[in-house]
Structure formats: structure tokens, C-alpha cells
Amino acid sequence: MSTGITEAPAAGIGKLIMDNRFSVPNHQRDYSWTEDEIRQLFDDIESALEKSSGVYFLGLMVFLNDPGRLVVLDGQQRLATAVIIFSAIRGWLTQYSEYQGDAGKIQEWFIGRSELGQKDPEPRLTMNSANDKTFKDYVIKSVALTDIRSALDKLKKQDRNRKLLESLVYAHDRIAQLALDKGKGDAKTAAKYLFGFVNFMRDKVSVVKLSVASEEAAYTIFETLNDRGLDLSPLDLVKNHLFGMADEKSPDAVRDMEERWAQMMATLSNVRADNFLKAFWTMRHGRIRSVDLFSAFKKEYATPDAAIDLSVDMLAAAEQYAAIDSADDAIWSIYPTEVRTTVRALRLLGSQQTHPVILSALNSFDPKETVKLLDLLEVVIVRYLLIGGGNTGRFETTCAILARKIHAKEIKTAALAFQELKDSYPSDDDFKQAFRVKQERSNQKVQYFLRRIEQEAIRQNSTKTPELAPGNLTVEHILPRNPGGDWSSIISADPSITEECATRIGNTCLLTESGNNKLGGKSFEDKRKVFEASDLITTKAIAAHSVWDRKNIDHHQAYLAKLAASTWRFQ
């Protein structure tokens, strides 16, 4: 199978810049290196330069061939920083009349050159639309450091060009300090060192140039290598496609697209945006591999009007997707208050496979049916995945089919959704059997299980709405995970009990703050007194046991399993 690689020779980064022109696509992130990254680069180059045979490997850079230029898919931060360093060296040299010619060479070789009749230099590197003007005005052009500092002072803290100018100021300061340290007050000696620095960057700061036939090919390579790809993702590629389609329509369409995209990304700031993209596609079209997302979007939304409509739909869906993991989101204000508890539980349980289903329901179900569906998903995740150990790939396929059917209005109720999920709903007997032996190392999940089971125990023993006693609850491991001498008789009779039973759900219980007297490694007899005094039904039940060995752990977990079958049941 073709990888789309057309060439992959190694070269010094300076030589690479000399021989090519580059452009950063508008979909790529802004310049983002901080002082820490640029300082590390300077330190590494200086250290390698001091070694007579030193070579510094800067890594892989990936480009898309385009007539007359290379489009930067991965490596813009390093490439832009290299040009910034050359710009700072040029700035130092221009202070001295005898080095004006050398400054001109650095300008022409590494920064930008003017053709006959041109006033402004043609940059070696063109940045994205947010950074390009600042890059041209202060990096490509020769500007005094005082003017750069003045421009930086005028920028707001969150300005998209702030890090660019901060890096440029740092580079100027660092070059000035290098010249002072190496020249020891002699400009000729300092200039000689800087010439060596430039030549080292030209020939020995090595990068591997990887040219690919398409952005899809680059993303496939990144997925295969699981290495770089820091500037490239399916969402970036989709963005580039949509902006390209909007550009074919009109400048106004591009501006509108930019506003929608910025709003969408702000909405998705607390979730993984690529997961949203996959869930959005799955909701509409069915299951897809992440590596195939861009090709699918490009084929499905291939006209300017389709791309614009898609961006509107994605913005609306992003608001709903962000709410899936946020119980406090305003979207849930129209639902009963108990839905927020379900949303928090779903986030804790963490089944990404259900997100397309929830996204579809928020868009298609009425609120009453959405609440029922969320309850159903919580039950299925616990029964099938967490306790039953079901196949996640199979569950993803089932959820993808359900999400698409809800979006297409083929399924309009939680009851019909249940029919679609029946194969992922273990029977009570199967669920209880799996629960009886379940181990869980996450205290958060153990507390979730025990809380819900306690609520069910209260419900079965009262006609009132199940509520837990006030106060925070903590998880107590009855047989300690690191038992001391008080447990020696149990351990000697059953040497493997700690390894095999300490993290079983049947070996845990809930304690209120008042009941939690730091029981820790105390004996069962000491703990039993606290359990006997507890107001929690499932905790109090432990006090009925005279000893705490494997047999009694089995017995208590069977008791919890029976309650669990009623707790996580869809009716």
C-alpha cells in the first residue's frame, strides 16, 4: 500500500530554508513556543557547537508539495524559530557597518529576499493568517529591538501574536548575550562566533524532510508511527477543507466560517475536539475509524454550500457535545434536576462509545425520552462493560447504529433504543454472577457502585424516596490491602486472600464522616463495632458476620449482587 511519501532526505535546517519556500496553512495552530522551548533550543545548539564533530538532530518535518513552495504539515514551530534566530543574528550584525554585507547574506539566504523592482522582501516562510503580518513586520523585515519591545507591550495577554514577539525578543537578547560572552568586548571575535553559529545551523542542525502527496497520507503516517503529528489532526484537516470550500464562495463566507469555527473551538475547550468530530460523523453516518475521518468528510461535503451548512451544524452539535461531560451545563436546565446526577455518573463511567448516542438524542428526542435514554445508557454501561466485561468494539458498533437511527428519526423513544441495545443487556442471572466476583481498584467507581446499591437498599426498606444520610461518604476496605498483625490468623489460613480479595467489591463498604475513625488496618472485631453503629444498610449488614474471611466476603458480595440487579435495571 502506498504511503504517499515522495522523498525523505536529511538536511541542515538552514540549508533546508535556503533551498525552499514554505507556507503554514491557516488551519494550523498559531506560533506557540514559549521562552522555555526556545531557550532549550539555544542551549542544545550551543552544546552541540562546542563539540568538534557535533551534530544536533532537530527531528522530522513533514511537508506537502505545492507548486513553488512546501506546505508545512508538521514542524512550523521549529522552522519559524529557526528563522527568528537568523533574524536576531541579522539584527546584531546590522549594528556594525563592516558586517552589513553579512547581515544581507543572512537576510537573503534564510529570511527573505527582494526581487528586482520589489521593495519588501519575499519571505522564506509564510505563517498562518493570524501570525503572518506580525511575522513579516518584525521577523522578515529588519526592525530595531526597541520597536519590537514596544509592539509587544501593546499586545493583550491573550493576543495570538504575543508568543511570537516574546520569542523574538528572547532571541535578540540571547544573541546579544552570546556575542558579549564569546566576544569578550571585541565585535570581531563576537561576529566570528555568530558566523560559526549560522553555519552550524545551516549544516549541522539536522532535520529529516518528509514530503507527502496529500494531507491524508501525512495523517496516516502519523497514525502508523504514533510519533509526531502535533500540528495535524483530523479536525485540522476538516477545518482546512471547509475553509477552502468557503473561500471558493466569497470572502464573507470565509469570515463567517472563521467566527463559527472560533466559537466552536471555544465551546469544545474542555473536551477532546477530535472525539467530537468522530461522534458527529458517527451520529450522522455510522461507525468510522479516526484515520478515515478526513477522507469521509471531504467526500461527503464537497461543495461550498455543503461545507457552510456543515459548519453551522457542527457549531450547534458542539454545544450539545460539550454538555455530555458537564452536569452543570446550561443545556440540562430544561431537564429534571436528577438528570445531572446521571450525567456525572456517565462521565465517571467513561464510555466514549455512547457519546454519539447522547448527541443524537439531544438533537432528536424530547426531554422526557432523553432522560430515560441516559438512564438506559448508565444501566447498559454498568451491566455490559464494567461488570460483564463486554467487548468494547462490539458495543461501539451497536452504539453507532443506534446513534444513526436516532438521528434519522427511526428511533424516537428510549424503549425502542432498549430493543436496539438488548444484546448488550445481560440477564439478571448473568449480571449477578459477574458481580459476585467483580474486583475494582478505582475508589471513585467503588463509591459509585456502593452509593447506588445503598440507595436501592433504602428503597426496598422504605416507601420514601431513597436518600443517603447527610455527610461525605468514604470507601473502607474491610480486609486491608496491606493487612497487619491483627489479620495474621486470616492470612495464615488463606495466604492468597489479600491478593485475590482485597479489591473485591464485597470487601468494601461505605462509611460516613462520623463513622470513619481511621479504621485502616484495625482488626475486623474493631471495625465490626463501627459497622454495627452505621446508619447505612449495606454497611450495617457486614456486622452480621463474626469473622471476615473469603467465605464471608463471598457471602456479602452475593448480597450486594442481588441488590445490584435491581439497582441497574431498565424498565
What fraction of residues sit in β-strands?
5-15%
Radius of gyration: 32 Å
Largest sheet: 7 strands, mixed
Morphology call = elongated
The helix/strand class is alpha/beta
| Unreliable stretches | 225-230
What is the straight-line distance between the termini?
50 Å
Question: What integer is the average pLDDT?
Answer: 90
Helix content: 55-70%
Helix segment count?
26
- Give the strand tally: 11
Sum this structure up briefly.
This protein is of the alpha/beta class and 571 residues long. The chain is built from 26 helices and eleven strands. It is elongated, with a radius of gyration of 32 Å.
Task: Describe the protein's topology.
Blueprint: E1 5-7, E2 10-12, H1 13-19, E3 22-23, H2 35-50, E4 56-66, E5 69-74, H3 76-93, H4 100-111, E6 112-113, E7 122-123, E8 125-126, H5 132-140, H6 145-154, H7 162-183, H8 187-203, E9 205-212, H9 215-225, H10 234-249, H11 251-267, H12 273-285, H13 293-300, H14 304-324, H15 339-349, H16 355-364, H17 367-387, H18 392-407, H19 414-420, H20 428-435, H21 443-460, E10 473-477, H22 488-493, H23 497-501, E11 508-512, H24 524-532, H25 537-540, H26 550-567
Parallel strand pairs: 3-5, 3-8, 4-9
Antiparallel strand pairs: 1-9, 2-9, 4-5, 6-7, 10-11
Helix pairs in contact: 1-4, 1-8, 2-7, 3-4, 3-7, 3-8, 6-7, 7-8, 10-11, 10-13, 10-14, 11-14, 12-16, 12-18, 14-16, 15-17, 16-18, 17-19, 20-26, 21-26
